[in-house]
Amino acid sequence: MELKALREKRSGIIEEMTDLVNKASAETRSFTNEEQTAYDGYKAEVAAIDRTIAAAEEMRNEQRKLETPVETRDAGNNGSDKLTPEERSFVAYIRGMAAGRSGEMRADTNMTKGDNAAVIPQTVANKIVETVRDMCPIFDLATTYRVGGTLAIPYEDSSTRVTAGYADEFADSDSTAQKLTTITLTGFLLKAETKVSISLLKNTDLDLLNYVIRKVAESMVFAIEKEYLVGTTNKISGIAGTVKNKITAATATAVTTDELIDLQDSVPDVYQANAIWIMNGKTRTALRKLKDNEGKYLLNPDLTAKWGYKLLGKDVYVSDSMPTMAAGKLAIYYGDMSGLASKISEEIEVKVLNELYAKQHAVGILAFAEVDAKIENAQKIAALAMKAS
To answer: Is the pLDDT of residue 97 over 80?
Structure first.
């Protein structure tokens, strides 16, 4: 089937899905079982068409590469742009190290030594960070600082507010000022490892630069999302280690509608515009079964939602890094995630592991980045804690 026909078929299915949603909304009711089944079927078919279109476009790009002169390949953006000298040096370094030529790194091409490995050129490091941003919502939504070393961030403690009142001439008046507080972001070395086939490295048709950027970013996303949401004791605190605004559920394994409302309302209205929900997939499944006083489901599929679902009017993001509903766990976050301060160093370092995966006819690419994350505005983010057993 031609791509045009596939896209037209996809548009028709989207219209069917929209009609189902509009019908239920107009009648102020939730989906019937039949409608839900139909909607899920349409959604699965759209996903299958998207995969087919992506595969067809990928093959089309590969065909274009074969038609492109060799000297213009490996140039990023499917060969449409030339690599910078620094990026060419980086590609040569990886291919050279994979071939056992450890002397490929030269100072005059800006591939310099860091504490852990070779420092990636700034343009490549920026592309890795931007790819991480595209793939990791929590990193994208957090307030990010691109600096190395220790970073102190001052903010006003909202628990004490400035008060106003009447004043008489020639008389002192009482006043209060907000307390200035500081959070400190240091830096913990986060590593991201990926494997690359030696056969791919020898293939001059491979867009090695973008391939490595994507693979390193995928590995970093897994580590960053887990640390930013859950954290590690004595390492990156993340949301779990610094959240102060908490609602405690009445039980250890279930959540009520009222508790979700309490959690949402614990974030001031001024920060509600960009607020989202974050939870584990199993938690979302449990919440899909909750109903309001009129028997309507609280959480429903929504075509306008960024991640496919909305709860009490706000988008729901699902992360496997989040704990499930269990005793003492922080199972749900709600709020404006710009309240999370994220620090990632300007320099990312890379090391090519020649021997570790030699039996697999592959090389490992190990990237290091200095990362930290803490909540810098306690009012923006709230958490639902399950009752301790």
So the answer is: no
The DSSP secondary-structure symbol of 291 reads: B
Please name the helix (run of DSSP H) or strand (run of DSSP E) that holds residue 282, with its range, or none: helix 281-287
From residue 117, alpha-carbon distances to 114, 138, 149, 350 in Å are 5, 28, 18, 5
Residues in the chain: 389
Written in H, E and C, the secondary structure of 137-194 is: HHHHHCEEECCCCCEEEEEEECCCCCCCCCCCCCCCCCCCCCEEEEEEECCEEEEEEE
Give me 333's structure tokens. 């976050």
Residue 30: its pLDDT value, please? 87
Question: 84, 154, 72, 181: which is closest to 123 by C-alpha?
Answer: 84
Q: What share of the chain in percent tops pLDDT 70?
A: 79
Phi-psi region of 136 (alpha: psi -120 to 50; beta: other; left: phi over 0): beta
- Degrees, nearest 5: CA angle 317-322-323: 135
Question: CB under 8 Å to 92, separation ≥6 — which residues?
Answer: 104
Residue 342 · residue 133 · CB < 8 Å: no
User: Looking at the whole model, is its pTM more than 0.85?
Assistant: no
Identify whether the C-beta of residue 277 lies closer than 8 Å to the C-beta of residue 285: no
Distance CA 238, CA 97 (A): 36
Q: How many CB atoms lie within 10 A of CB 244?
A: 11
- Give, in order, the Cα–Cα distances in Å from 356 to each of 98, 111, 115, 366: 12, 23, 21, 11
What is the average pLDDT across 37-41? 88
Residue with tokens 């679902």: 309
Residue 228 to residue 135: CA distance in whole angstroms: 14
As given in the structure block, the two tokens for residue 108 are: 């005059």
Nearest-angstrom CA–CA distance, 192 and 365:
8
Question: Which of 127, 143, 281, 264 has the alpha carbon at shortest distance from 207?
Answer: 127
Question: What integer pLDDT is reported at residue 7 of this predicted model?
Answer: 73
